[in-house]
TrEMBL record, chain A:
Keywords: Calcium, Cell membrane, Ion channel, Ion transport, Membrane, Metal-binding, Potassium, Potassium channel, Potassium transport, Repeat, Signal, Transport, Voltage-gated channel. Its main location: membrane. GO terms for biological process: regulation of potassium ion transmembrane transport. This is Potassium voltage-gated channel interacting protein 2. Belongs to the recoverin family. The keyword Nucleotide-binding does not apply. It comes from the Eukaryota. The gene is KCNIP2. It is found in: Cell membrane. One of its GO terms (molecular function) is potassium channel regulator activity. It holds the Pfam family EF-hand_7.
From TrEMBL, chain B:
This is A-type voltage-gated potassium channel KCND1. It comes from Rhinolophus ferrumequinum. Component of heteromultimeric potassium channels. Identified in potassium channel complexes containing KCND1, KCND2, KCND3, KCNIP1, KCNIP2, KCNIP3, KCNIP4, DPP6 and DPP10. InterPro entries: BTB/POZ_dom, Ion_trans_dom, K_chnl_volt-dep_Kv, K_chnl_volt-dep_Kv4, K_chnl_volt-dep_Kv4.1, K_chnl_volt-dep_Kv4_C, Shal-type_N, SKP1/BTB/POZ_sf. Its main location: membrane. GO terms for cellular component: dendritic spine; neuronal cell body; postsynaptic membrane; voltage-gated potassium channel complex. Keywords: Ion channel, Ion transport, Membrane, Potassium, Potassium channel, Potassium transport, Signal, Transmembrane, Transmembrane helix, Transport, Voltage-gated channel.
């Protein structure tokens, strides 16, 4: 390293320090390459208020008191008034600690989210509950069909059914008795289609579904499951 | 989010509709839950402040007090609310837990009070929310440490107070570790401190130039060479003391291996070794270099002062605990030194007659500049050198200033901890005294009560009237309980003073051969003895008399007499005293006249009046007492030698 070079280096260092000092005084605006400062202002809470109590009373089959209780619980958990998919999955997973309930929760979310805006508001929530808990058997079966029909095209294919079945079996987790076999969901889907698919065209339409379910005694008897949930 | 679980349960159950059509077996029927009532509002009254909440809110956590049926115990049917006699401010946090599912820890409350409230309401401390968890844990750990220190200090503090049964070795060790326990230890402590100082000063003074010896007055020699004998004697004396101290410590140490490896013992060894090595090594020229080094090591004696000074120990401990910061300081300094030394060397290379002859030579310049010493023995002369030199000095200030506050804060923390420990130790004496006072207060109350004849079942009105002072219901029941215990064990309560005096008197063998009756047991005790332990009463009577004598006014003389009762050999009167109690015992029930039974010592009646009178003024404190004594002394002659009675003062 010759002397000139070192002197130049020394001068450069001095200049750099000088610039830094001037920056401190605000005379030089630092060139900022990213303008992420604005992003900070994004509102993280979107507050959603449901329609009035009377309207909800008309739309659903719940009494005023029941709606009040439901809303209190809902608001407590989701102060912003809406549930998004992540929350939904998290909530549902608390009930099934052993298995993985995220897939089924997604399906449920899509079923509850009737207007498909990516979030479940209190109206959606209460509407779904009203159908399931206070609706007729046909309503419930309709709702279940809606749940199974993933692409909402009016009929359930074997692939859709298989997805649903797998998600339900996933909720069981690893430790079951007797041990879960790989083919169990598939077999279950086969038996389901055998029972439901009248014309053997490989898909189950809503009429076939309701008709077959009404003929099935087990299903009819199990419907009283929802009698005193709320 | 356990609160969420309860809220969303209906939804999860409703979602089971998706399984219905797929089920191959019939689903089980829903549980027969009673028809859900409309949600009701509960009122919880905590020390007057009313909290109202939905019942469902409380039901979210069924394994707590408020969520379970345990709260029914606190239900007040008249007012229709749940009443808790607890802190309302803390309850707010508990209730918020039910509402939000997160338990927050209040900052301004004592952590122990908070813990107690949690324990009462059945909440586990793990429920504290993440936001407050760290702080909660820190405060709890601090508290636990403080309590542990207290316990340690208590045990350590009580240790020296109870040297009974410890060997010479243990006593010696305790004397070394806590010089304040005995005068001898304190003296030893100061003597060693003095000799350390003397030794260090001698080492220093040794090197001062004195006027030369008589032969060459103009030449200046160090004092050590002028008065070699004096210094040698002083050195020898100091080393002897240090050696003795070290050997004693080694002997007394409970774990010699650990002691040998401890820092203080190493310092001791290093302090005295040079002397012995110097003795055994001839003062030849070939080893004089080593000899000089050894003399240097003598200065380490000054570290022995750390036993005497708390502050030195703290300093050492601080440095040890800041080892990482010091290490960082050293590392960064080294890096900077090497960089700047290299740069300065190359910058100054071209100058003629430069001081910067090599990079290591430049180290000296860099260190002096970075620590802002600036001796000026090496200065750069080129411009580049000066620029880099100034940058060097600026950066030096920064690099050194950074770790220093960490070390300082560490020192401050440790110092304050120590101060706090000392303060607690000082306060602990007060605290222990308070506890002891409270305990003795209760005992004294009971003993006083007994003295006043409260235990008499069918006492005469006179005696009963004496204990007219009102006792609370609690006291009454407490005293009854203590009385029951006494009856069960056939022993009586007494106070510490009497007991230790009696014990001391017994162990020392008694002093006089008093033969008078002695003090004090209430009637109850007498009848107690007769009723439950007739056979053992002979021993018990004496021991009891020993122990319960002089609740407040026992005299040494009376105790000595009692003591004399128990010692069989030597003085003739004593032996005669002892002979009699082995006979049969008839407890005289007439002794009620004296409010209690009397111990009469079967000595020849002639002695009794003479000796009793001198003893009575010295013995008792009350008029009643003296009269009792006189009565007893007269009575002695009337009673059979076999009778043993216990009298009260």
């Amino acid at each position: 390293m010759n002397l000139e070079g070192l002197e130049m280096v020394a001068v450069l260092v001095v200049l750099a320090l000088f610039v830094k000092v001037l920056e401190q005084f605000g005379l030089f605006e630092p060139v900022s390459l990213e303008d992420s400062v604005e992003d900070e202002f994004e509102l993280s809470t979107v507050c959603h208020r449901p329609e009035g109590l009377e309207q909800l009373q008309e739309q659903t089959k719940f009494t005023r008191k029941e709606l009040q209780v439901l809303y209190r619980g809902f608001k407590n958990e989701c102060p912003s008034g809406i549930v998004n998919e992540e929350n939904f999955k998290q909530i549902y997973s608390q009930f099934f600690p052993q298995g993985d309930s995220s897939t089924y929760a997604t399906f449920l979310f899509n079923a509850f989210d009737t207007d498909h805006d990516g979030s479940v508001s209190f109206e959606d929530f209460v509407a779904g509950l009203s159908v399931i808990l206070r609706g007729t058997i046909d309503d419930r079966l309709n709702w279940a069909f809606n749940l199974y029909d993933l692409n909402k095209d009016g009929c359930i294919t074997k692939e859709e059914m298989l997805d649903i079945m797998k998600s339900i079996y996933d909720m069981m987790g690893k430790y079951t008795y007797p041990a879960l076999r790989e083919e169990a969901p598939k077999e279950h889907v086969e038996s389901f289609f055998q029972k439901m698919d009248r014309n053997k065209d490989g898909v189950v339409t809503i009429e076939e579904f309701i008709e077959s379910c009404q003929k099935d005694e087990n299903i009819m008897r199990s419907m009283q499951l929802f009698d005193n949930v709320i | 989010m356990a609160a969420g679980v309860a809220t969303w349960l209906p939804f999860a159950r409703a979602a089971a509709v998706g399984w219905l059509p797929l089920a191959q077996q019939p689903l089980p029927p829903a549980p027969g839950v009673k028809a859900s009532r409309a949600d009701e509002v509960l009122v919880v009254n905590v020390s007057g402040r009313r909290f109202e909440t939905w019942k469902n809110t409380l039901d979210r956590y069924p394994d707590t007090l408020l969520g379970s049926s345990e709260k029914e115990f606190f239900y007040d049917a008249d007012s229709g609310e749940y009443f808790f006699d607890r802190d309302p401010d803390m309850f707010r946090h508990v209730l918020n837990f039910y509402r939000t599912g997160r338990l927050h820890c209040p900052r301004q409350e004592c952590i122990q009070a908070f813990d107690e409230e949690l324990a009462f309401y059945g909440l586990v401390p793990e429920l504290v929310g993440d936001c407050c968890l760290e702080e909660y844990r820190d405060r709890k750990k601090e508290n636990a440490e403080r309590l542990a220190e207290d316990e340690e200090a208590e045990q350590a503090g009580e240790g020296p107070a109870l040297p009974a049964g410890s060997s010479l070795r243990q006593q010696l060790w305790r004397a070394f570790e806590n010089p304040h326990t005995s005068t001898a230890a304190l003296v030893f402590y100061y003597v060693t401190g003095f000799f350390i100082a003397v030794s260090v000063i001698a080492n220093v003074v040794e090197t001062i130039p004195c006027r030369g010896s008589a032969r060459l007055p103009s030449k200046e020699v160090p004092c050590g060479d002028r008065f070699p004998m004096a210094f040698f004697c002083m050195d020898t004396a100091c080393v002897l003391i240090f050696t003795g101290e070290y050997l004693l410590r080694l002997f007394a140490a409970p774990s010699r291996c650990r002691f040998l490896r401890s820092v203080m013992s190493l310092i001791d060894v290093v302090a005295i070794m040079p002397y012995y090595i110097g003795l055994f090594v001839a003062k030849g020229d070939d080893v004089s270099g080593a000899f000089v080094t050894l003399r240097v090591f003598r200065v380490f004696r000054i570290f022995k002062f750390s036993r005497h000074s708390q502050g030195l120990r703290i300093l050492g401990y601080t440095l040890k605990s800041c080892a990482s910061e010091l290490g960082f300081l050293l590392f960064s300094l080294t890096m900077a030194i090497i960089i700047f030394a290299t740069v300065m060397f190359y910058a100054e290379k071209s100058t003629n007659k430069t001081n910067f002859t090599s990079i290591p030579a430049a180290f000296w310049y860099t260190i002096v500049t970075m620590t802002t010493l600036g001796y000026g023995d090496m200065v750069p002369s080129t411009i580049a050198g000066k620029i880099f030199g100034s940058i060097c000095s600026l950066s030096g200030v920064l690099v050194i200033a950074l770790p220093v506050p960490v070390i300082v804060s560490n020192f401050s923390r440790i110092y304050h901890q120590n101060q706090r420990a000392d303060k607690r130790r000082a306060q602990q004496k007060v605290r222990l005294a308070r506890i002891r006072l409270a305990k003795s207060g209760t005992t004294n109350a009971f003993l006083q009560y007994k003295q006043n004849g409260g235990l008499e079942d069918s006492g005469s009105g006179e005696e009963q009237a004496l204990c007219v002072r009102n006792r609370s219901a609690f006291e009454q029941q407490h005293h009854h309980l203590l009385h029951c215990l006494e009856k069960t064990t056939c022993h009586e309560f007494t106070d510490e003073l009497t007991f230790s005096e009696a014990l001391g008197a017994v162990s020392l063998g008694g002093r006089t051969s008093r033969s008078t009756s002695v003090s004090s047991q209430p009637v109850g005790a007498g009848s107690l003895l007769s009723s439950c332990c007739p056979r053992r009463a002979k021993r018990r009577a004496i021991r009891l008399a020993n122990s319960t004598a002089s609740v407040s006014r026992g005299s040494m003389q009376e105790l000595d007499t009692l003591a004399g009762l128990r010692r069989s050999p030597v003085p003739q009167s004593r032996s005669s005293l002892n002979a009699k109690p082995h006979g049969s015992l008839d407890l005289n029930c007439d002794s009620r006249d004296f409010v209690a039974a009397i111990i009469s010592i079967p000595t020849p009646p002639a002695n009794t009046p003479d000796e009793s009178r001198p003893s009575s003024p010295g013995g008792s404190g009350g008029g009643r007492a003296s009269s009792t004594l006189r009565n007893s002394s007269l009575g002695t002659s009337c009673f059979l030698p076999e009778t043993v009675k216990i009298s009260s003062l």
